[in-house]
Known about the structure:
Elements: E1 3-6, E2 15-21, H1 25-33, E3 41-46, E4 51-55, E5 58-62, H2 64-67, E6 70-74
Antiparallel strand pairs: 1-6, 2-3, 2-6, 3-4, 4-5
Amino acid sequence: MHDVLPLGCLTAGTAGEIAEIIGRSDHVHRLREMGLASGVRVEVVQSGSPCIIRVNGHRLCFRDCETMGVLVRTAGATCVETAPVAAPTAVGY
Length: 93
């Protein structure tokens, strides 16, 4: 059975396939430019904030709030407890 969880909830060493990216269109577009898209395999290198993932042979680093809209299909993973993070009103790049 595969569970779908936000990327920011996964523990280090967990791998899965991106099921969907949700959020503001500009934020979703930016993540897709970085190589994150449905069907792409990702692995969490470091959980928490910053969250470091491996995708397509590259390591990417995100704040917790940036990973909550990336939904990942995993095999039986559970969500780790993280401190509440306020949703950003604007993301500067």
